[in-house]
Amino acid sequence: MQLNRSGIAAVLGALAGTLLGSSPAAAEAEAASATNAYDQSASEVGSVVADTALLVYQEDDHRVRAIESETGLTWNAPSGMIVSGKFTYDTLTGATPNGAIRSRYEQTFVPPRKTRFIGGGLGINPDTHTGASGRYTVAPNQLPVDKGFKDHREAYDLGVTFPLADGLKLSVGGAASSETDFSSYSARASLAKDMWGKNTTLSLGFNYERDGVRPFTGVPRALSYMGDRIVGGAKVKQIYSLVVGVTQVLTPRWLIQLNYSYGDSRGYHTDPYKIFTLVDVDTGDPFFYIYEKRPDRRERSSIYGATKFALGSAVTDASVRWYHDSWGVNAMTYAVSEHAPVGHAGYVEPGLRFYRQTAARFFAPYLGIDVPTPPFVSADSRLSRFRAWTFSLKAGAHLTSRLELYGAAERYVQEGRRFDRSAPGVLAQTDLFNGTRSTSLISGLRYTWR
Amino acid sequence: MSPSSCGRAKHLRRRLLVLALLPLLGACAHIGAQPWERDVLARKSMQLAREPAIMAFDEHTYFSKEAASGGRSFDGGGCGCN
Lengths: 450, 82
What we know:
The complex is a heterodimer of chains A (450) and B (82).
Chain A: H1 2-20, H2 24-33, E1 47-59, E2 65-76, E3 82-97, E4 107-109, E5 136-138, E6 145-165, E7 168-179, E8 182-195, E9 200-213, E10 219-220, E11 230-232, E12 235-251, E13 254-267, E14 275-279, E15 286-291, E16 297-311, E17 314-325, E18 330-342, E19 346-357, E20 367-368, E21 386-398, E22 403-416, E23 437-449
Parallel strand pairs in A: 14-20
Antiparallel strand pairs in A: 1-2, 1-23, 2-3, 3-6, 4-5, 6-7, 7-8, 8-9, 9-12, 10-11, 12-13, 13-16, 14-15, 16-17, 17-18, 18-19, 19-21, 21-22, 22-23
Chain B: H1 3-29, H2 52-65
């Protein structure tokens, strides 16, 4: 019994030592015995790093498919200055839900009219790039999706970090991205200050973003009937974001990060391609479709906490995020992953992420035709109440001291309330949730010149 | 339970709490790492923003499918996925 007690005490002592820090001698011994490539220093001073990666993203039921490539070049000057540039190109194809509910009857959807309504003709101008602007029909009991959806995006990002004074760094950068119907420009600046023997880092960042949307169909009149005349060609929104953070080293093998972020977004937030169903309150059948409408302002705040803890060559990474916005959405995100070394040159990292959110105040899957139309309404599943799981496996290996191969496989599953037994008529047996399930495969290659 | 025994229980709980927090105070004195202890913190595997490309792809996916965004950094999206 005494032996057992002393054994437990030894284990507890070792654990306490692990948590509260190890002696210099132990650290040196550990460094000497480090045999995995990912135990090496992350310092890239005096190097140029080229990084290229490819993502293949596929949603279930032949919905959206995205192929995204990213190529970046980073120069880490001996002075401590860092210059980085990144180019992203992606293509999107597939089918995206248009906001309408399933029906036991065939449904036909028409775009807003770009020209005056003369006689019986609809002034439809089908776009050659995307079917989002054309007329289309959805079979009975199928989720209404626009199958002609396709687009591509080019995005550029440039950033520079200057070491200003002892432990103080200034980072500035800008980004631009362009799609056929959307463009975005942003500029950012942040300061980071290392303090108390580099054990504490305080950071403060500001970002300004300006987004312009030019829908293929023109801008529909919000809350008016499907097929009504457009009210414009383009809309804009501006986003101001602020992030304040602290990173703290707790022990030689344990660090934490805490961020507070605030974003104020003003302008056009409505999805111009999304419609909303008004139903017959007796039968539950779709009666009428209107264009959705969202508020012109959205304030978001979040608190994000993350921690990394090393035990031998393994590293546990855990994070939590609390989110709230002025649309009434509250969300919690939890993520955990475990970096495990494999041989001398590789690692695997299984991960799990759980996310849940409440619905926006103006979200509804449908409304009865007898209900006065509210000032804002959307049936976009992104604004509904749901939870989501991500199961991931990342891996990487140093093929040579300069060349590194990495990748990831991820499965993302959203779960929401599918049936509402109190819904009118046939809607009580209609699947009202149209969340996403998707699979992502990522592969990347990184080369370092020293 | 009488009011006096209830008060004693509260007092005991407070003392136990103080006792439980004492080791943490001790730990505070040792917070951080000395320059010669930073080898583990400097490892590639210990960096907060590892695999930036994977992180960017993931953020893009979540931004286009969920209402919440940001936290780790700015909450803009730069994409038309609204």
